[in-house]
């Protein structure tokens, strides 16, 4: 092209997820690749009561009743928060984009878990972030390592997914949450806490937002309705400490004026109804069964090939492979067997922390397909490991 | 605040429009300030047929059938375009934001009409654009002035609203459209054409998109359903020359994954139905009457105070005041009389092209309120002119 584009476009990486998702959505493919909720569990959408009042332009901050319900829900989790600190977003992805707009210039240092959410990496990278990774351990990130990295890199913010992390499934202990908050308070470092999976919980675990433990550090908390209702509506939200909020609202306004009102109206009705808790309980029951099915299948087929823990919530298993397999190459082979997974490589913010891994979604396929798919996948991976052994 | 935000945030201007709109939405205020469609003319929203299929995540580019219908509509206007060049956006405002992301780094030169759409200025400013204004004349911008400005400033793109421009109401002649296209082709300068008002037309006039006359220059065409259906749904679109499209889709994906599917599904149904043309004809009949009512009221009350032309389409009158009135101060006085308008100042991309002006919306108030409000407004402006004379 002869014309100039922004430097931003040079940082648009090849759209691996897009390409993979397109292939995996072909009929007949058993896909563990995406993070799709099960469509058969989604609530019926009934807009009759709210359609007429959702036609005109609305407020950039979102519908007042929905904001109040969200603030009430967050306070119930321990995050004291007023409705005027809540912004409704066009999906939680927009919350990530607004955080990028708010904080990141070219070269701005950002600390993140390693591995972390791929689409957050892509989004922050477009704004020019310089990434520094905090290796994830069983209990979360190490607070001492966090402090050392803050002192060394002076990040604009720390991006964490403490509950049922994507891709690792890790859920921080309460002690780790408190220790992380103490380091952030001590150093005055802003926290961006991404919490889209918090209501998908299958075993008891600590889920208090880290933001709830902050006393001084600025914070942005990102929430989602996509995983528990209907992602096609594109309604998420964020809450923030008061000083950041006016900036974020202006950036939201210049991004898309406001979020679709019809989805907000339906959610306002649904989450205030008795149906909501029933729906969550049913969804979690089904997902727990699928998690258990995948866990049993993995024990049967992947012992010796990989290491993993069954996640206490969320949507994913994260398999650390014991041999150094090229997982992108393995994916190509898997697709010829009509089974798909997400290669681990792109989830790492920096190259030298990478290890060979797979992310497997368990919410979308039925238990029968999970059984069948894990069997197929183990054959593919076994072949790839043999090849790695022969050529290595 | 002790923590760092992006340089972008330093360019977030005070949210004048937001503040004004909040005041003007108080009951009892006759507001000519916003650009709100009349709610009583909006079509009924009936989602029964499409709710179930709109729940899951969807494609970033938008729903295939809607993209095909949009491409077909654009081809009917003379802009040859395939469905795979069409991206559905979360309102036309998101199209403007994606253009900013695509083209603008800090200091990137951008050419725009003077005056031009306030929210585009705000959005491009956030990305760091350096503005250069092209004064609007009755027939559009002057092609020779455009060429001289391109040679001098080497802009990343030219942003134009050739049909029923916001705020001026100007509609480019066909000769001006062709001459502008020729200059852009000759210099290889990308065009961003914003065309949200094209279907709101009350008198015969040329409306072929300038993009349709381009042969070589890259282009992005921004369209909207907000002005002709229901803005609360937040569904707009863009089309672009093929080389730009893949970049824009990736930026869309990192902004909000995709646009709400339920609004897309309803629009797909509505714009393919016979009701659509009937609805447009009815809406244009009512708006033409409101335009005429405002024109008569202005002739009665504003002759000697301002100069203007009745617009052939769109939503606004633009009044150039004959005396040097502080229109922001005048607005404050007007609000004490329960009538509101939009001051002209913020619509100018550069200070030295400013002149005192008002923008008056005629789509939202009833004819009775228009009569009454214009009378009140002329009293306020007459007082302000006298004050200007006394103190000047």
Gap from first CA to last CA of chain A: 42 Å
Radius of gyration of chain A: 21 Å
Count of separate DSSP helical elements of chain A: 12
The first-level CATH class name of the largest domain in chain A: Alpha Beta
Summed over residues and divided by their number, the pLDDT of chain A gives a mean of 94
Name given to the CATH homologous superfamily of the largest domain in chain A = Type I PLP-dependent aspartate aminotransferase-like (Major domain)
Low-confidence stretches of chain A: none
Count of separate structural domains of chain A: 2
Largest interface: A-B, 74 and 74 residues
User: What is the chains' assembly state?
Assistant: homodimer
Q: Given the C-alpha coordinates, what overall shape of chain A results?
A: globular
Strand order of the largest sheet of chain A: 2-8-7-6-5-3-4
Find the structural class of chain A using helix and strand composition. Answer: alpha/beta
Strand count, sense and barrel status of the largest sheet of chain A are:
7 strands, mixed
CATH topology of the largest domain in chain A: Aspartate Aminotransferase, domain 2
Number of strands of chain A: 13
């Amino acid at each position: 092209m002869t014309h100039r584009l922004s430097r931003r476009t040079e940082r648009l990486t090849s759209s691996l997820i897009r390409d993979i998702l397109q292939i995996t959505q072909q009929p007949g493919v058993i896909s563990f690749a995406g993070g799709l909720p099960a469509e058969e569990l989604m609530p019926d959408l009934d807009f009759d009561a709210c359609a007429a009042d959702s036609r005109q332009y609305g407020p950039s901050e979102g519908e007042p009743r929905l904001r109040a319900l969200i603030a009430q829900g967050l306070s119930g989790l321990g995050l004291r928060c007023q409705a005027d600190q809540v912004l409704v977003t066009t999906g939680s992805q927009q919350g990530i984009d607004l955080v990028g707009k708010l904080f990141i210039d070219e070269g701005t240092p950002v600390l993140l878990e390693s591995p972390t959410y791929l689409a957050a990496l892509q989004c922050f990278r477009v704004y020019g972030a310089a990434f520094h990774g905090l290796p994830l351990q069983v209990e979360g990130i190490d607070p001492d390592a966090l402090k050392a990295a803050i002192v060394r890199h002076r990040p604009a913010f720390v991006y964490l997914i403490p509950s049922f992390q994507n891709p690792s499934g890790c859920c921080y202990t309460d002690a780790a949450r408190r220790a992380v908050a103490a380091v952030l308070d001590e150093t005055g470092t802003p926290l961006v806490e991404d919490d889209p999976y918090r209501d998908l919980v299958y075993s008891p675990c600590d889920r208090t937002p880290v933001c709830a433990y902050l006393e001084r550090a600025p914070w942005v908390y990102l929430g989602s309705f996509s995983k528990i209702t209907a992602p096609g509506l594109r309604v998420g939200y964020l809450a923030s400490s008061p000083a950041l909020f006016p900036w974020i609202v202006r950036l939201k306004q210049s991004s898309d004026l406001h979020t679709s009102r019809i989805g907000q109206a339906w959610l306002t009705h649904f989450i205030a109804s008795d149906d909501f808790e029933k729906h969550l309980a049913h969804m979690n029951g089904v997902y727990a069964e699928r998690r258990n099915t995948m866990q049993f299948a993995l024990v049967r087929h992947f012992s010796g090939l990989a290491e993993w823990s069954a996640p206490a919530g969320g949507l994913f298993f994260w398999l650390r492979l014991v041999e150094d397999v090229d997982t992108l190459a393995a994916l190509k082979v898997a697709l010829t067997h009509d089974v798909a997974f997400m290669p681990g490589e792109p989830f790492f913010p920096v190259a030298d922390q990478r290890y060979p891994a797979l992310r497997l979604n368990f919410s979308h396929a039925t238990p029968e397909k999970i059984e069948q798919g894990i069997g197929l996948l183990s054959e593919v991976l076994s072949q790839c490991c043999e090849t790695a052994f022969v050529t290595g």
